[in-house]
User: Fold these one by one.
Assistant:
Number 1:
Amino acid sequence: MKPSIPRGTRDFGPAEMQKRQFILNIIRKNFELFGYQAIETPAMENISTLTGKYGEEGDQLIFKILNSRIHENKNKDLLKKEFDLSLESSRNSEELTEKALRYDLTVPFARFVVMNQHQLSFPFKRYQIQPVWRADRPQKGRYREFYQCDADVIGSDSLVNELELISLMDKCFSELNVQITLKVNNRKILAGMAEVVGAADRMMDIAVAIDKIDKIGPNGVHKELSDKGFTLEQIQLLFSAFFIQTTDFKDFEPLANIKEKLNYLKEESKYKGSLVFQKGIEELEYIMYNSNVSHLKFELDISLARGLNYYTGTIFEVKANAGTFTPSILGGGRYDDLTGIFGLPNMSGVGISFGVDRIYDVMEELNLFPENISKTASCKLLFSHFDLETQNHSLALAAQLRTNNISCEVYPDITKKLGKQFDYANKKNIPFVCTVGSNEITSGEYSVKNMQSGEQEKMTLSLLLERLKKGQ
């Protein structure tokens, strides 16, 4: 049978991994620059940890793990249900499934905080770079297995944390050379709108519907809200705020146009009487007027909702300004009581998540990776040789190079001619080849060839070390 991999997953060869590592190294470096500490959590969580945190539609995308002991149970009715892993069956039957693959990194982080609260210093700033899984329909930019790079600070409700996260985004995307627009909104604004239209207890229905506006358009959102029982008058009132004309920063000058929009919402809109709405506007004003950015563009988007249940304040979404790629490449926001679900109330947090796979797709399409990044060698030098004696001597030389933190390798076969060994170095883009023969062993001087220029020079081990350390 021809081998294959599951839909929505991918293999990455050395060339792709070098590009992915380029992205990850920049993000990781900046996480640490801003004071975030690394943690990891298990690939699987108890299903009770995950369900109920992402909304009904999100919960349906959780990959559930079938209990291994189910096959030992002879109950025919239970065995019949074995393959019926609907949301309700998985929630209510521990005999079927107790565990699931993590859907994101935020909920496991909240669980981690609660379990380790006495060992942590708050506010606690963590970063996490790990894969997540979603039982989604695979398509461009949407995978079933993908990496997230999260930065969160928990134990502080200061909006300074939002400002720092915006600076972090700005620095990362600047170094990646990806031109972006940062869309910003606040869940309190949506809560105030739901209150004014007489549906304070249905804010999530509104958020889930408008979060799909890029996929299904205004008419689709209108239909979904109508199908959920909202009246035409309620929908029109909601849309009066969603589709106020927005204007981005112009040449990164003060946001006169966004300020005008915020003033309209605060002073003239039909929602100005809602205190929670006004609080959301105030928080947005603080963030937009105090952000110090040089690379990204801001956009105030009242229709931005982020469909996850746990957001309560500021919400972020980043999109690339160029290319055909339309999904967001970063998302995040403020959550006031996610840890409360696990027994630790009043622990506010805020975080962002970089979508590495989507960033990779954008950079690949726009040719933004550094030139020749895929041709970068995994080591600096190859030792070529003629026989067992010269190979053994090469191994001793390689050990001394590695002691000096210089990457190298010894050609493994003694039956291959020098030409084959040099071809191997060329294919792996190894910049230098050191040839070891019996004469070289006797004299202590080795023939070193620069594979790019073709120049060849005799040098001692000490000179070779000196040159390689200098990158010559």
Number 2:
Amino acid sequence: MKIYETSTAPSPRRVRIFLAEKGLLDKVTFEQLDIQAGENITPEFRLKNPIAKVPVLELDDGSYISESVAICRYFEALYPENPLMGVTPKEQAEIEMWQRRCEIYFFNIVGMGFQHTTGYFADRMQPNKEWGEQCVKGAAKFFRVLEAQLSQNEFIAGDSYSIADITALVTVDFARVIKVRIPEDMPNVLRWYEAVKQRPSAKV
């Protein structure tokens, strides 16, 4: 199996951390794409993923799976040991709920803030700086949601590290590029972040 990715991009990092947590990094090879140079928007790559985003998993039968969480779900089903998406129906639902919250209201918003305030992809989209600035503010507000949740739980979706923590960790790190930091008055988020960034998987 092969994963097409850009090592500096946040979405591929989610998959790498997930695989590292499950001890599966040796199950795949990685091929780097220069997304700033547009290697992901070529006709050839669009045959692998018509949305032209990374990462993309190429299976041994020549088929492709894109979208980070879909790739993670594939590996979770294939290798259920060290579960990161829950075991019981309730655990699975709660982790999915928090994963989606972290993705929709934090990860995606930080991404929009980055794209629209920096103009990084101005060659293929029309940045709207005002919208980007609103996204930056919106991303910062999500820390209040995390603070409340983490005041009652060790990890974001409960007592176990999960894909929700991976999404949030990657987002916190990537948010530095738009100058969004964890506020000092949120001790539970700071406690959580110090713990998860020390995990060996966070270094991949």
Number 3:
Amino acid sequence: MQSEESRPISSEISGEKLPYPASQADMALQPDTDLSSYLPAGKLSGKVALVTGGDSGIGRAVALAFAMEGAEVAIFYNENEEDANTTRTMVEAQGQRCLAIKGDVRHSEDCRHAIERTVVELGGLNILVNNAAYQMAQKKFEDISEEQFRRTLETNIFGYFYMAQAALPYLSAEDAIINTGSIVGLVGNEMLIDYCASKGAIHAFTKALALNLADRKIRVNAIAPGPVWTPNIPATMPIEEVENFGHEVALGRPGQPEELAPAYVFLASKDSSFITGSIIEVTGGKLSSG
């Protein structure tokens, strides 16, 4: 387990480069996802949650935090089976059941299967976390291929749409949908144009869906992370960007996945009962105003 003092800051991150999709297990500098300093309070006791992209990074930390708060958890992942199995083991170590479901959020039938399996095997569904994402940095706009553009949009917004539609028949009053947006969906990033567009769409989707589901008392919110050290970074960013990752925020370092997880717990629990249609920025001081 890494201590608070061992969290990587920008000066400690080397120019590590990994092939996409990167496995968290292969990262030289491991993200903090074990929640070793987290103090649970039973906020999600008796709940069932499904987290897409739950095999590593933010998704793993969220799945673990939910389990520590008393929820049964399903994770939906695409390729990295080793990471998914690690997450499942970590959740089960908290005394909670965990399903690891392989599939692709770009395919609506996979999304329906993930929801239905969760409901059947864990007994219901109360919390959907749309977190799966794809990005690939390109320094020149014209280098963004049509294939990349489609993959980015289909993963990051089509997948959220499919999952929410599949989940809705099983959600009831006081249940929650939480979407992972991004600060770059608010301020932009010159190397992630298609990704920024998809994250902006997620923010708008969150607000509109919250209005649509308000009469059913189902809350819909989003987290907008700033720079967070996850497997996506060494797999999708140029080496020089990896070396300087997180330098632009007020705290001068990237966040750790476990520093995001409490915000998801808040939005999943009754503590946020009067919050819907909101985008909560967890950015280390990179504000949406610039």
